[in-house]
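cron nightly-structures :: item 1 of 1
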Amino acid sequence: MAAVTEQHHSCHFAFKGKYMRVPKGVYLFFCLLCLMACQQEELESTYTVDDSPALSMEQRSSFVASFDDGNTRTELDGLRIKWNAGDEIRIYGTSTEDYFYTGTFSTEEGGYAVLFEGDPISTTHYFHAFYPTSLIDGIAYTTADEEKQIEAHFRVPTVQTAVANSFSNNLNICYAKTSSLEDYQLYFYNACTLIKFGLQGEGIDNVKRVRFYANSIDNYTTTLLSGNITLNVDNGTVNVITGKDYVELEGEFQEGVYYYMMCAPVALTNGFTLSLFNEQGLECTKKGVKAATLHASEILNLGTIPVGNDDFQNGAAWPYTTNDSDHPVSWVVIPEGFTKEQMDDYHTKATEMLDFIFGFEPFQDYKHYFNIHILDAVSDESGADITNENTFVKTSFDAGWSSNNINNMKANSQRVFSFVGSHNPDILNGKVSINDTGIIMLINDERYGGICWNWENGKSFAMIPMSKNSDGSLMKWAGSGGNTVTCEGTWLNIALHEAGGHMFGKLADEYVGGAQYYGTTIPGQNYAVPFGMNLTADLENKLFWSDFIPDEKGTKQMGKFLHVGTYEGGYGMYGKGIWRSEEVSCMDDNRTYFSAWQRYLIAKRIHDLAHEPFSYDGFFTDDSQYIRIQAGIPYAGTEGIITTFFEPDGIRYNNSLTPRRFSPTKSNDIMPPLPPPVLIEE
């Protein structure tokens, strides 16, 4: 009989969403309980087999299955181990060279050690057994340190069914092997971990789904908890090959009982989050912020979690503009660092930001294609992390950056995509995927900054703080069109650049540095969803906007733009070897103007997502800027641009033979350029 042991593991909970209304003393007492409740429990075995049936050494048709110290079961009986009648195990035999499937064995009785019977089998070596049969995908030999090892392939279900004080049958993955040819007893070992929790409070009836996931490691690297796993039978090592970064329970939940979900044994380096969803898909979250390690054959006990009727505020979706087609262009705004009391201000600022973006071409021209929702997510505290000062606040998405370096702006991308995937109505209705959803994170912080994270498959989110000068004056950015050209604006200009340009348009920066670019291709242009097509490093073969260039500078021609040419410098740090289509634009100094070629790229992406045809001529028909040019109206957005020469070939328009290094050396009033977008290959 195995002794009972418990391994306590301190796990701190930070509760996100709307608190239950309880007296302060009661709330503090509950927090203390939660701090103590998160622990790791080890399963126990309480039965040994005393009687052994006589079996032939050459053939056998039955095995006795029980459990070794602190291992698994198909049904929980407290911490005791128990089989259910009807359970099936799969038996594999081995020879000196081969590994072969021998049959499925089942039991007609429940208990702690039971007899499994099947068709007679024979072998010249020993046996392996696996449970459950429905989740095993086969076995294979692997080689490690020149020795053959046996590897089993299983599936850990991502969505599991809630069962009071237990878990659904045919779920828990375990394995066993005989020690010799004469051995007929199978001692099963647990391969995975169990997550245990209870619920209490008036809001329990609202809970329909509970999701457990690991907080991301470095804001975009996730830890997989479910999916296709490999199990090394010799040493018990489990690896998740492909799958999801969460496990989830569905069903009806009640007070006074515990629930369990199974997941792969992994290290939760940055803690974990438990999310509760109601029938409408609204969410409240409970976040554990301390690292934990999930071991096979152990239970991570999260304790009992309070749920109030008004906790389910996160994920409420407020429409900004509506498109009910089957293929809308879908955007969402999510709040970071806004408390419950600040949600009205968040709604006001989010609406102001969207009004600004859609007040300019090409977004103004194509606004009717968009379906945009402002989503709610309540943070415990205001602001964002100041990472270089070790100042961390409790927010929904863990956004932060250094006070002296805006290039390291990060957020928990796993949480961002999980939240949007669970609450964007267009995703829930099956109209779009997370890869095609535009995500704008509005950050309740006045420090300067702004960045966009982009993945190869098109997935992206922009981080927009509400930056402002300490004296309330307008911010200024110097453009690449000469030192006298500057743009004045607010954080809204940053939103247009990061969200409109990087996040949705997939445009690269066009401000100019002093370095030489030596390549002929640009990273991101070969992505599944291309990034940076507004630039070229190969004038001879990849001048994408050649049809936009007039034959003579300053002339008006059908399908051509007065200021389009090839201007050397761009991509942030380069002054030579890379070219942009116009001297200045929103992707240069954050002005409220996208160049003609940039507008074309944005319009094309809109039509692609809407599953509508798009053509060169159609763009000119729709483009308000081009229509004004043909009517003789000044070319809005290009005011103050200095052009100093026009080359005879009619292509190269540069303001200077020596590109100016972009740095705020002329005036302290000039803001530094925003950091380049982060590109991530899948």
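cron nightly-structures :: done
The first strand starts at residue 6 and ends at 7.
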